[in-house]
Amino acid sequence: MNESRNPDWQTGPPEERDARLASELQRSAAELDPLVTLSQSAQDEIVRFRERYDSRPSDAPLPPVMLRQLRQGSRRYLELQERLKGLAVQYEPLADLHARELRHLRLDPALWYAGVGLATAAALTLYDNYLSLLLIMKDRRLRHLINDPDFGYGIGEDELWKLVERMNSRSNRRRLRKLVGAWNDPPKDVSDETAGFLGPIRRTIESSVSYRYAEGEANEESLPTRGRIRRMHAADRLERLADETIGTLSEVFGNGIGLIETRKGKLWERQDVRQKVLDTLQPLDLLLEKTPFRLTDHFIPGHFGHVAIWMGTEGELDALGVWNEPAMQAEPLCGCRQEVAHERSVLEALRSGVELNTLRDFLNVDDLAVLRPKRLAPDQVVPSLVRGFQQVGKEYDFNFDVETTGTIVCSELPYHVYPGIDWRTESQLGRFTISPDDVATQAIGQQAAFDLVLFYHDGEPVEADEALPLFTELVRKAHNRSWSS
Questions:
Q1: Distances (CA, A) of 19 to 13, 24, 25, 108
Q2: Angle between helices 226-258 and 159-167 (to 10 degrees)
Q3: N or C: which end of the chain has fewer CB within 10 A?
Q4: Model confidence, pTM
Q5: What is the band of 7 on the pLDDT scale with cuts at 50, 70, 90?
């Protein structure tokens, strides 16, 4: 809860004040009820998520679907807390009114008590949500993930940490106890029948876990102390600083060698190739490339050195209804249509960040493989495309960590965009990474998630019946070389 706002119930004749307060309370009670329901659903969702998380092996990365649940849940949680806080703050001043002030104002006791109850119910629901959040925050790995910024989900850095520290402050705990104390001291002759919405408010209050803590009936020793929270936050800051240091060194190194290009690619400015590729491509096709003439290619394990996603033409996306999606109406996604209209349909993560580029620029390569998802259901196409556009503008992930959604490296794009794929990853320096060849392996074998629909090797097209065997041989040979070295 933030500092209370000054109410305007102390102005005008008593009858007008009561009528105004009664009207406001009716609207607020109608607003509170679904917020309580949403909070209970969020609390249940957190418990289920934690159970799924605990049942997974600790030496495997969280799958994309769980990462999305974590970030989407965090965004909904923050929005829910903000709305509940608004209601608690709006009516909290009523609990500060003493009996003498109430008599002087001639405020209807039933309305006063209903307002106190509304503030108390909202504040207790806030704290119940906070107690559920602790299930996530007590795990170091999950804390790291949910407190990383991700503007694609509208989440700033350490937003959940700030909420935890605010909810755990002494001043907010005192304010909660003050509200509960006022609620537990009702005026005479005020009952649930006096104000029609007192019944639901009472049920919300009495079913709250935090109500027992505020009354002193539950042991607060089970809650983390302010000192422990500060120590955990300090440790997380040190860990992030270490990650940023590694990322900065990687960025300096990558930017340096990325400038070195000895020639142009063998498919560069080949109009016949560009037209053939354009005629083949469909929205959500994957593009893998090899550029042995760039120094960066020699530092990437495997055959392929880069991955991108073909998002489709403006007309194709219009026909699919992508531009009508609510997420595409807001900044910065609303600018994507103009980018695509200017033939910038290749979604890729470069050292400058995630951006949309032209196929012409992308084809400065020697090898090109086009992979098409085999099991993408029709109702998954548009959400996957929207997820792709939501990556635009994010910074490059110089830590190469597939679990961080706020920064992206090229091979992490498909990891986060395509649903239901069991991606191969590797553990390096305490984080899980995915390489372009890890993506390429999804087109190999009986359980392949992608079809190889077009392949150019060393500047030349590979016939359809020879493409997959050669593609497989190149990927497997490169994999064996990287492990033997």
A1: 10, 9, 10, 10
A2: 170
A3: C
A4: 0.74
A5: low
